[in-house]
Structures are given as structure tokens and as C-alpha cells.
Specification:
Residues 1-464 form the Major facilitator superfamily (MFS) profile domain. It is found in: Cell membrane. It holds the Pfam family MFS_1. This is Multidrug efflux MFS transporter. The structure is a single chain. By secondary structure, this protein is mainly alpha-helical. It folds into 3 domains: 1-198, MFS general substrate transporter like domains (Growth Hormone, Chain: A), CATH 1.20.1250; 200-254; 266-477, MFS general substrate transporter like domains (Growth Hormone, Chain: A, Up-down Bundle). Helix content is 79%, strand content 2%. The protein has helices at 9-44, 48-51, 53-75, 78-98, 102-130, 133-164, 168-188, 202-221, 230-252, 266-296, 301-329, 331-350, 358-384, 392-424, 426-429, 433-458, and strands spanning 463-466, 470-475. It has a two-stranded antiparallel ribbon with strand order 1-2. A hairpin with a 3-residue loop joins strand 1 and strand 2. The protein is globular and about 65 Å long.
Amino acid sequence: MNKSIVLTDKKRNMIFINIVITCIALTMLSTALTTALPAIVNDLDISVTTGQWLTSGYALSMAIVMPLTAFLITRFPTKKLYITGLVIALIGLLLCAISPNFPMMMMARILQAVGNGLLTSMAQVILLSIYPLEKRGAIMGWYGLSLSAAPVIAPTIAGLIVDKMDWPAIFYLASVIIVLSLIWSIIVFDDLLATKPQKFDSPSFVLSALAFGGVTLAIGNIGHYAFFSPQVLLLLLIGVAGTLAFIHRQLKSHQPFLELRILSNRNYALSVLGSMLLYLVMMAATMLLPLYVQSVLGKSATLSGLLVLPGSLIMAFISPFAGKLYDKVGIKPLFVFGACGMLISNLGMVFISMSTPIWVAAGYNMLRCIAIGCLMMPLVTWGTSYINPELTAHGTALLTSLRTVSGAIGTAVFVGIMTTVSQHSVSSYGSDAAIHGLNIAFLWMSGVSLLLLLMGIIFVKKDVLFGEGQLIKTEVK
């Protein structure tokens, strides 16, 4: 933070409220179209496969823009960059609302993803910079609501809007919120983060786009194409080659585009790995539960939305509480408790059957959401507190990029496991083949959760505490 800027508690809170409202509005749009997609496909006269690009293309654009945010945050003044992100997102929202065809709407979704990616990265860096160490856990817990509960609630809200009005209303509503946020940010924001002259490294950006974009797109295509097809294997090879070239260039550079050397810090590396394992399971569960209700049980989309709603509400409650708890006890208890919750909730889904009451799955999802609330933002806060404050932008950009790719991998892999097992189990399980596929997918997700738990027990050390729970950034050997 620039030394000339003195922030009062009131101004910090005004900035925080602005950030949270903005992120809730934009984050909801990452999943809202899953419910509105049938209506959009019908109105634009496109196939469902083409329409899916409105969500997969959004995720791909997010994956590409995330590594770029570290450069932008350290190069340009905070207020101008934040307002620019809001304007880009607003243009994308308005274009989506009036789009008469697919190309225009696809371009608009890319603009939304660019704005959301920039604002999400900036939000974490700003909050970690303007609040003292002993308050970061609590404040990041509250901020975590916009990143965790909003995407889960969004499909239910979008469904109600589509039923009562039409799908453009989703984008008009979000636009109104972003306009208010834009006015608010002009009034309350300052140049909060230190900047420095830095030359834009074009080759590194191209390599990062090939790396993160190639892997994300290849994994996303697995459910639609054979593994050895160009749409999967070729893109995956491009992504892996881009990743290796990107890593080599960053490690050789004196002023890297994305500072990868921070992974040499043990605690930060553990926070990144923990976040990746969390997203691997979390995003898969988000996709599998609607499939369980609609495809396996044959129930309505509304019921699938209601199934996850209690968990979302609990997450909204637990996330700030977990943040405050992190400030008092450190990461170890939250890590172990959260990983246990993930393991139990996924194991429970292994044993459900066609005759199991649907509220049982809702109960397991509630436990999973409690676990996510205990892990998501505390992991970010913990990891970034162990790196140089000047590298916070790089730390959040790297962590966010890797967990986004991990989430895409988890969704593709575990949905693929469910589909494949179901198809090969028809002769043995008959009408129960689909639920058997779901059971096996959650069994593998339980294995990932077990790895997360073992990591928390064995490798994560207790933080040293003093006074009113304030953390000393020293690792206990």
C-alpha cells in the first residue's frame, strides 16, 4: 500500500463493502447461465453444444486473464485499474442483455470474464494489503461469501428470473449493481497498492495463455471428444508444452511476468496444493449433485437448486466465522476439520441408493459446504501471509489460476468417471447403473479428500500465536 494513503476504519469498510457487492454480482454470472442456457439456446437458435461455450468460454477466458493480473496490479494505479475492470464487465453485461446472436454474446461473455478475473484478483490483494495481519482471516472470511455461496445460489435465482421474466433480465439486474458499484468506487477508492515501472513481457503472456488456456480447454473437452482427438490430446500437449516453457522463462527472468519462486516457501506451496485439491472436489460436487437429482432421480431442475440451497446458506454463515477462528487458532485446526468434513460428506455419497431420501444428499452437501467455508479463504489468507507483501499480487494470481484449472480438471474427470462407470454397469446393475456411477465418482473424490486430510495432519504445522490470537509468521519445526 502506498505510504501516502492513510485509511480510517470507516474507509476500509466502505472499500470492503464495495468489493464484496461487486464480486457477488460478477461471480454469480459464472454459473447463472447453467439454468438460463435452454432459453438462450432457443432464442438465439443455436445448438446446446454451441451454447455451452457461453460457460466454457467464460472459464477459459478467466484462466487466461488470471496470470496477467499480477502484472496489471503492480504496473497501474489501483483506482483506475479497478474502475477499468468494472467498465469492462459492465460493457459485457449490457452486450449480453441485447445480444441478437451467438458471436456477439460470446464476445460479451469474454468481456465479463476479463472484468471478473481482474476484479477478483484485485479484491484479494487489496483486502490482504489494507487490513492488519490479525484481522485478515475475518475479513477474508466475509469476502469468501462472494466466491463460494454466490455461484451455488446463482442457478436457483437465475431460474426464478427466467420463469418470471426472461434471460436478459439476469444481465440487466447485474448491470444495475455494477453501475452502483462503479459510482461507489469512484467516491471511496484511492490508489491503495504500490506500483512500479515494468515492461510488459509479451512472450510470457502468450506462454501463460497457451499453458492455462490449453490445459483448461483440453480438460473441458474430455466429456465431448475422445481423449486421443485433436480437441483433447493436441490441446493438452500444447498446454503442457506452454506450461514448461512458461516456467522456464519465469525462473530465468529477473523481473518475471508471474513470480513462481514464491512456491519455494513451504507454507505458501501447501496452501496452493490444498486449494487445488479442494477445488478438484468442490467443483466436481457442484456438477454431480444436479446430475444426481435430474439425470439419476429424474426430478426437476428446481429441486436440484433447492437441494444445494441449505448448504449455500450454511456456507454464508460459516465463512466469516471460520475467518475469525483462523485469526485466533491458526490454520491447522481449520485445515484438519475441513478436510474431515470433505471426506465424510463424499464417503456418505458413496453409499446412497435410488431409495435413499433426497434430504440425505442435502445433509451431506451441507457438511461439504461447512468444510469448504473452513478451507477456502483461510487457505488464501494463510498462504499469502508467508510471502513478501510486495509479491501478494503474484501470490493471489498464481493460487487463483492453479485452483481454477484444478476445478476444471475435477469437473471433467469425475463427471467422466460417473458417465463411464454408468455405461459399463448396465449389464450388472440395470436401472441402478447411473447411481452406481455416481457412487464410484464420489469414491474417487473421497480419495482426494483423504489426501487433503493427510496433508493437514502431517505437513501443516501449528502457527505460533501471541496476545489476542495474532499470528507470528514463523513455522514450528
